[in-house]
Automatic annotation (TrEMBL):
A Pfam family that the UniProt record links to this protein: VGCC_alpha2
GO molecular function: voltage-gated calcium channel activity
Organism per entry: Collichthys lucidus
Lineage: Eukaryota, Metazoa, Chordata, Craniata, Vertebrata
Voltage-dependent calcium channel alpha-2/delta subunit conserved region domain sequence ranges: 6-50, 63-116
InterPro entries referenced in this protein's UniProt entry, alphabetically: Ca_channel_alpha-2/delta, VDCC_a2/dsu
GO CC annotation, single: voltage-gated calcium channel complex
Name recorded for this polypeptide: Voltage-dependent calcium channel subunit alpha-2/delta-4
Length: 132
């Protein structure tokens, strides 16, 4: 059962093992979105070496391009289940599409911790670095 702070969060951040397995099984597809007008924090080593008394408080931002990971549900997969082996235990799950809706029901056996083998999948944007 999800705790209150977990409700509404991206499931890959909560349980990387199940989300990784759903991606491998084809239920979700990873898609990259790009923001070509983003603002990124400037690295501290690229900032001027002026005395610290003259530096402004707060982050220095500069224009940049960013990549945002996103995941798209593949509706051709209506239901699936799997067993994830994690060291000395196994985690079972079943996922099923709720008819006439855009909802999925996911039931996971929660007594097996797979976080060492499967890190969380985050949706944090990453700055795109170009090699010139």
């Amino acid at each position: 059962m999800l705790s209150r702070p977990q409700a509404g969060r991206f499931y890959g951040e909560i349980d990387g093992s199940v989300m990784t397995t759903l991606i491998r099984m084809g239920m979700f597809k990873r898609v990259s979105l790009f923001d070509y007008q983003a603002m990124c924090k400037m690295n501290s080593h690229s900032v001027s070496s002026a005395p610290s008394a003259h530096k402004k408080k707060g982050d220095i931002l500069q224009p940049c391009d960013t990549e945002y990971p996103s995941f798209v549900y593949e509706p051709s997969v209506k239901e699936t289940n799997s067993i994830i082996k994690c060291g000395r235990c196994q985690k079972m799950f079943v996922v099923q599409q709720i008819p006439e809706s855009n909802l999925l029901m996911l039931v996971v056996q929660a007594d097996c911790d797979c976080s060492r083998q499967y890190p969380p999948i985050t949706m944090q944007p990453k700055e795109v670095k170009y090699i010139l």
